[in-house]
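Give me structure tokens for this 610-residue protein.
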Amino acid sequence: MLGRTDSRRRLLFLLVVLAIAATAIVGRLAYWQVVMADDLAARARAQTTVRTEIPSRRGEVYDRSGVVVLATTVDRDRLVAAPDQLSQRRRAAVATELVALLRLDGPAAASLIEKMTSERPYVILARDLEPEVSERIRLAIADGRVEQVMLEAEPARVYPQAGGGPDSSLAAHLLGFVNREGEGQYGVEQQYQELLAGQPRVVVARRDINARAIPESAVTTEYGVPGVDLRLTIDAGLQLAVEQELLAAWVADHAVSVSAVVMDPYNGEIYAHATYPSYDGNQYRAIASTDPARFIDPLVSEVYEPGSVFKMLTAVAALEAGVTPDTTYVDVGTLKLDGGKTKIDNADRKGRGTMTFEDAIAWSRNVVAAKIALGLGATTRDAADALYETWTRLGFGAPTGIDVAGEVGGLVRDPAIKTWREIDLANGAFGQGVAVTPIQLATAYSAMVNGGRLVQPHVVKAIGDEEVSTAARAEVMDSRLTPTLVDLMNHVVSEVPFYRDRTLIPGYYVGGKTGTAQIWDPSLRDGRGDWKRDLFNYSFVGFVGRHEGVPELVVSVRINEATPTVIKVGQLEMPVMSFELFRRIATDAITTPALLPDRPRSLDPVPADR
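Here you go.
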């Protein structure tokens, strides 16, 4: 008889093994059902549902009147298809019909045919269809000429106002544009993206086998917030007039570009802000593929050496140091510096002998400007510190804070970091060796004429129904200097016949300063750099007012890389000079209806806090 084969020890072992296995299984189930429950549910929802963000209505942009629409959003149709639902032969036939309906040829036709003959369940064939094109498609669908295609509405940003030149929309550089993803690019559209775009509506729905939402299952989880409208400081009529003036100067002067800004020197409002060549914000995609540099706004995003308009900064430093308009200097044709190692010249290579400070500024004498700068301190270092401090106090070397995207701060060398030689100080005195933007120049000149306050330039006047309150004005100069500086700028355009004949506006009070600067090209001379030949930057920054001694508007003009038609020592002339362009724009601005208050601001009582 055989012995028993069971064993308590063996049974106990099996029970332990089974208990461990059961515990592991229960633990694993608990892990998946408890710990990972939310994650698994999310994965399941992701596999069976689709989450869609529907953009809210984007805010509109108006000019200062609140009536002229500069940017708005409309619904445009896009053409979509489900090629996988058709036979290959039928796909080809539908593709051919659509090419004819859309009137495509070349690469555009080939692209549509490729998409329509694919095996994909959902393709976008065309966007931003014009209403008449959409109607042709609808008729073709109704007639059965095309199948498995449909029209879907999508928002499109539109800039309805024509600009001052061909193929441009009004204030294109200032506004920027909105891409297909609904994101603002450049200008106001980018700077105020969050406010303009609002918050999208979020819809969750079950999806079909082709990953498309089933409409009847859609549930809104977030209702979104509409975008906010903006009212700009820009006057649409003046903006158009300025753009037309810039186009005319650009054509006449064969310039790379021409820019101008019109600014209220007392509150920083920008009334016009333009550059030509411009672009059409409605056609940004075509421009992006051929000339994306066109989007850059030279008024805020591009720096240049300003030339003699910077002599007014030297004048500020000199007046603060005790120089008066009647202080005399000896003007020589050439001034040797740094122990004879360097030198500077007047533009005409001549000296005018003894002359007053105000006449030296009016006749734009480089040598006198250099002597003034060198005399700002007991040593070159002290003088450099004084001039640099004046520049930075008036806003150069840092962004102004204007409310558009892409502003740069310019380039000014700090003598505390790298010691200036006499030649550096002299060049800086007449605007060479520094790099600035036109908006910085307009802001600094505003401080000179408004009583010494550095205002905040801005282009948005109201957000929704609320007026924008600008930052408090910073006092950067003694207000008692303003009358002298205003008289000095008026003396420039009154004293010199060359300016007087083409700058003064009958019946109005005008002043300002010109600047002509060479352009450095680091690629010349095999990468060693050199000045461009017979190409210059021309600038004028000045003011205009309805009463003597009372500036009301500041205008900053830049003609970039223009070729003069008359080239003589001390004389570089073009068909439209910078000061002539200033006169045209200033005339347009000062005569714009309802732009300025009936009573000039600077004739009003001075606020108590001053």
